[in-house]
Amino acid sequence: MTEAATAFVPGHVTGFFSAHPDEDPTVAGSRGAGLTLTDGVTVTVRRADGDADAPVVRLGGSAADIDPVDRVLDTLRAPARVEAETDLPLGAGFGVSGAAALGTAFAANAVFDRGLSENELVTVAHGAEVLSGTGLGDVVAQARGGIPIRLEPGAPEHGKLDGIPARARVEYVTFGELSTADVLAGDTETLSTAGREALSTLVGDPTLPTFMRASRTFAREADLLTEQVTEAIRDVSDAGGEASMGMLGETVFAVGTGLTDAGYDPTVCATHPAGATLR
């Protein structure tokens, strides 16, 4: 056992998805596809110092309420303090809560010598996020890395993943927040129908351009586009680039230099070649 451990988890922006709820949180999840990002979340877990008044979780140095992290600590029976750091926008579709949960699972497993495998830790974090209502597919994608395609929903025992064999520069701009919990708690039938069609398109041609086109079609058919997002996607298209909406947030992401060419001042990163890891 050790006093502290740190994990890094890539961000994840979803291009499209279909929701697949289940009473068992390890079976519940989503099908879809997205990009994992070199911009991510660094999570440090330390043994609790006995100060009952100290916050359990801090994000960017401030006390934070991240329910999936609390659930992971409870599941692993880990009395700990968690410090999470990220430059990613919060509530904007980058999988920060899933990354925090997965990073906590990896680091707490090391600190408290729980002896769990990677798949077991992914299952703990995935279940915690599903139960919290903050996501359905980020954790399994962030564990894999690259450009993951979620063919079947659920934690590793139940889900099935593939991927697009490519790497890319990624640009993004964020105009505001959307509540993942509110969207997932509502009627997701229209959204899921569009997601199933998008997945079928991508499976038939698993390339980055097809992913971007399928993502744009999904955003339109799922009726999730806002005015600002629509305008930015159109601007990128007019400049000869490829862009779509990040799920679920008022975020536009582009591959290559699409947003820059369209006159925006985006944050720039890249697809992450690997999944979550201890540092």
TrEMBL record:
Residues 78-146 form the GHMP kinase N-terminal domain. SUPFAM superfamilies: Ribosomal protein S5 domain 2-like (SSF54211). One of its GO terms (biological process) is coenzyme A biosynthetic process. It is an enzyme of class 2 (transferase). It catalyses: (R)-pantoate + ATP = (R)-4-phosphopantoate + ADP + H(+). Its EC number is 2.7.1.169. InterPro entries: GHMP_kinase_N_dom, PoK, Ribosomal_Su5_D2-typ_SF, Ribsml_uS5_D2-typ_fold_subgr. Keywords: ATP-binding, Coenzyme A biosynthesis, Kinase, Nucleotide-binding, Transferase. The keyword Transferase applies. The keyword Transport does not apply. GO terms for molecular function: ATP binding; kinase activity. Pathway: Cofactor biosynthesis; coenzyme A biosynthesis. Pfam families: GHMP_kinases_N. Phosphorylates (R)-pantoate to form (R)-4-phosphopantoate in the CoA biosynthesis pathway. Belongs to the GHMP kinase family. PoK subfamily. HAMAP family: Pantoate_kinase. This is Pantoate kinase. It comes from Halobium salinum. The lineage of its organism: Archaea, Methanobacteriati, Methanobacteriota, Stenosarchaea group, Halobacteria.
